[in-house]
Amino acid sequence: MQEKMKTRQYVEVNGRKILLRPKVNLEIDENGYYRRQKNRFTEHFGTKLHPIEKDRYILFWSKGCAWSNRVAIVITLLGLEETIKTEVVDWSENEDLGWEFVNSPSHINAETGAQFLSELYYNTDPEYLGRTTVPAIVDYKTNTIVNNDFRFLTNYLETEFREYHMGNAPDLYPYELRKQIDDMNEWLYVNVNDAIYRTCFANSVEAYNEGYNTFFSALDALDDRLSEQRFLLGDYVMDSDIRLYSTLVRMDLNYLRHIGPSKRRLVDYKNLWEYCRELYQIPAFSSNTYFQELAAVGDKRFKFNPYYDMVVPQTDYEKIWSDPTNRCALSKRDKGIFLKEGRFS
Ligand SMILES: N[C@@H](CCC(=O)N[C@@H](CS)C(=O)NCC(=O)O)C(=O)O
User: Fold this and answer.
1) Cβ–Cβ < 8 Å for 176, 182
2) Of 30, 79, 120, 243, whose CB is crowded by the most CB atoms within 10 A?
C-alpha cells in the first residue's frame, strides 16, 4: 500500500502547490477489504503547543461527512461556537484537488489564507501521503492541523474545553460513565460507523459480506437495546448517541445507494427510526443535518436513478423527521429531561 502512495503528485493552482487526492482504493488490501487510513493528527488539546484558547481554532467539516457531522453537533450542543470557529468545506470542482474553502470569499479561508484543506495538511507535514480529510481542527495561529482524529475529537471538546461550555451545557461524557461510553464508541466504530464504509468500498464479495453482515447484525442488536431504553446509555443523550445518529441519518439517503439491495432501511426499524427522529428534534442535531447535501443526489459515480436523483430531492425530510415520537415514556427518571445537566465531577 505504501508503495502505491509514493506515486502522489502535486499541481500548481493560483500559485499554490496542491497535493492531488489519492484514490480511495489505496486503502484496499489484497483481499479486497477497505482498511481505513490511520488518523494522522492525534495531538491533544491543552498542551503548551495547543493551549485551550478562544479565537485560535477552526473546525473544517463537510455536510455530507458523518465523521465531521458528529463534531459539528457537539460544538453546537456545548455552545462552543464562540470559542471554536467552524467552516463548511466542499469538494473542489476539480475533484482531484480535494476539499476547497468554497464558502469563503474568493475561496480563501480568512483565518488561514488557504484555498484548499490539503495546503494545511502539507504545511503541518510535508511528507503526508494520505487523503486530506475532514473533520480537521486547525490552529490558525500556526496554520497547522492539530487534530483530525475523529475517534477522540468530540471527547476533547467535552472535557478539555469545558471552561468554555455554555452555562447549561449538557454533560455528554460524564466521568462515571466514561468507560461504558468508550466501550460503546469502540463497538460502534467497528460494527456501525466503519462497517458501512467497509461495505460501500468493498472490493471482493467476501469483504462486502463481512461489512454488510456486521452492519445489519449491529442494527438488529441496537434496535433491541433501544426497545427498553431511551438512549444508548440510558435516560440521557451521550457522546455515543451522536456517533450513532451521524451514521444512521445517512443510511437511507446515501449508504443504501452504494451498497445495493439491503435487508432493511432505517425506517423499517421501529426503535432505531424513532430514536433517530427524537435526536433530530433536538435543535443542535437538526441545525447540523442537511438532508439534501448528505444524500447521494447526482453523484457522478452512479447512473441516473429516478428514486435517488428525482424523488429524494423533492422529498421534505425535515417534515418527515419532525414527526413526534413517544420515546420519553422509556425514561426511568424525569421524562422531560434528556440532556444530562451539570458540569464534570
Ligand atoms: N479521518 C478519517 C476519516 C474521515 C474521512 O474519511 N473523511 C472523508 C469525508 S467523510 C474525507 O474527508 N474524505 C476526503 C477524501 O476522500 O479525499 C480518515 O482519515 O480516514
Assistant:
1) no
2) 243
Give the C-alpha separation, 20 to 245, whole Å.
Answer: 32
- HEC string of 90-118? EECCCHHHCEECCCCHHHCCCCCCCCEHH
Instruction: Report how far residue 312's alpha carbon sits from residue 162's, in angstroms, rounded to the nearest whole number.
Output: 39
**Which H or E run contains 244?**
helix 239-248
Q: CA end-to-end span of the chain, whole Å? A: 45
pLDDT in tens, 92-134: 999 899 999 999 999 999 999 999 999 999 999 988 888 899 9
- What pLDDT is attached to residue 40? 83
Residue ranges lining ligand 1, Cβ < 6 Å = 21, 36-37, 39, 62, 65, 67, 98, 131, 133-134, 148, 150
Point out the ligand 1 atom lying closest to the alpha carbon of residue 40.
19
Q: What are 290-322's pLDDT values in tens digits?
A: 999 999 887 788 899 999 999 999 999 999 999
Whether the CB-CB separation of 259 and 212 falls below 8 Å is answered with yes
How many Å separate Cα 124 from the centre of its chain? Answer: 22
Distance (angstroms) between ligand 1 centre and the Cα of 167 equals 33
Condensed to tens digits (0 to 9), the pLDDT of residues 159-173 reads 999 999 999 899 999
Question: Grid cell 494520505 — which residue?
Answer: 130
Question: Residue 33 catalytic?
Answer: no
> 192 is written with which cell numbers?
456501525
Name the pTM for this structure.
Answer: 0.94
Asked whether 204 and 137 are in contact (CB, 8 A), the reply is no
What would you report as the CA-atom Rg of the chain, rounded to the nearest whole angstrom?
A: 20
Q: What is residue 181's predicted lDDT score, i.e. its pLDDT?
A: 98
Q: Is 122 a catalytic residue?
A: no
Could you tell me the CA-to-CA distances from 288 to 37, 84, 208, 284, 285 in Å, in that order? Answer: 26, 15, 30, 6, 5
What b/e string do you get for 73-105 counting C-beta neighbours within 10 Å, with b at 16 or more? bbbbbbbbeebbbbbbbeebeeeebbbbbeebe
Give distance in angstroms: CA of 323 to centre of ligand 1.
32
Q: How many other C-beta atoms lie within 10 A of the C-beta of residue 115?
A: 22
